[in-house]
Amino acid sequence: MSILITGASGFIGQGLASALLKASSPPEDLILTDLNEPALPPSDPSLQQRVRRLAADLTDTQSRLGLLSEATSKNKLKAIYMLHGIMSSGSEANLELGLKVNLDATRALLDDLRNRHPGIRVVFTSSCAVYGPQPEGTLFSEDVTVPVPLSSYGTEKMMCEFLLNDYSRRGLLDGIICRLPTVIVRPGAPSAAASSFASGMFREPLAGQEAILPVRRELKLWNCSTRVVIANLVYASTLDTAAFAQHGYLNRTVNLPGRTMNVQEMLDALEKVGGKEVRGRVKEERDEAIEKIVYSWAVAYDTKRARELGFREEQELEQTVRDYVEEYVQSE
């Protein structure tokens, strides 16, 4: 059994790889790919021999087909996690690159999979950016709320959702679309996501550095913890997709569990864990370009579908920050 993860150099890809290796039945062959060869994920040394790391350009046909050929050279491919992409700010700044990576390469890979590995489980990570603004108090759901993305990133994700849902309806692929909230706290360097500040406002101050807060404190964000989102992605590869039809759901889309908080509440959580000195390292400098993107995102979600399908509920933000300190700050 093989599992392939695209975009595996990112922190979610690395965390997902580690979680899959720690599972009760780890994959015999775990292939990690990105534009450059991904790092070896933290794991038991006895399991690291199961990991293969490959550089591939998914926008290039020869490179993409070579990757799929290599991925099946040892075992049958059981599932693929599609995590690759140009993030929100990057997609807004460079339309052509966003289309090439987020839409064109994703469609090409889905077509390769349906032709070479029909029926394979595909876990596609989408985003709450597919929704546009609605009247205050709207509870966004997969069934009722019509997505009206107001960013190129959200539009590209929505088009891929439609395609994978149709391929799943036809039985060509066995897809699950996981709409991720803003994930915090992301370790490592800042990303090109408009929501990068949501992790930076914790990560940098806890590391003794200043962080820039580019939005107003009253901004609300739908967010989730790293640990819970990774646990839910692991679960997505094992879920019997017949459950969607059994519950009367017409598509394979799931709004993953999260929590709605404003930036002030996030600052309060930082102070509770790190103290006033750490909180004082956050400096407010508004950026209208970032605000324009993040203020277009939905902030409250109905996660009934996720609960009925067995996905894990989110934890309190303060615990998320403590988990980050334990895993990434105290270990340094």
Structure description:
- The chain is an alpha/beta fold and 332 residues long.
- The protein is 41% helix and 17% strand.
- It has a seven-stranded parallel beta sheet, sandwiched between helices. A three-stranded mixed beta sheet has the order 7-9-11. It has a two-stranded parallel ribbon with strand order 8-12.
- The longest helix is centred in the first third of the chain and has 22 residues, at 95-116.
List the helices and strands and how they pair.
Elements: E1 2-6, H1 11-22, E2 29-34, E3 51-55, H2 61-71, E4 77-82, H3 88-93, H4 95-116, E5 121-127, H5 152-169, E6 174-180, E7 182-184, H6 197-206, E8 211-213, E9 220-225, H7 226-236, H8 242-246, E10 253-255, E11 259-262, H9 263-274, H10 276-279, E12 282-284, H11 288-294, H12 304-309, H13 317-329
Parallel strand pairs: 1-2, 1-4, 2-3, 4-5, 5-6, 6-10, 7-9, 8-12
Antiparallel strand pairs: 9-11
Helix pairs in contact: 1-7, 2-4, 4-5, 6-9, 9-13
Helicity level: 40-55%
Q: List SSEs in N-to-C order.
A: EHEEHEHHEHEEHEEHHEEHHEHHH
Q: Could you describe the largest sheet, including whether it forms a barrel?
A: 7 strands, parallel
Strand order across the largest sheet? 3-2-1-4-5-6-10
The structure class reads alpha/beta
Oligomer: single chain
Contiguous low-pLDDT stretches (5 residues minimum) are: none
Describe the structure using short key phrases.
332 residues; alpha/beta; 7-stranded parallel sheet; 41% helix; globular
Question: In short, what is this structure?
Answer:
The chain has helices spanning 11-22, 61-71, 88-93, 95-116, 152-169, 197-206, 226-236, 242-246, 263-274, 276-279, 288-294, 304-309, 317-329, and strands spanning 2-6, 29-34, 51-55, 77-82, 121-127, 174-180, 182-184, 211-213, 220-225, 253-255, 259-262, 282-284. With 332 residues, it is α/β, with parallel strands linked by helices.
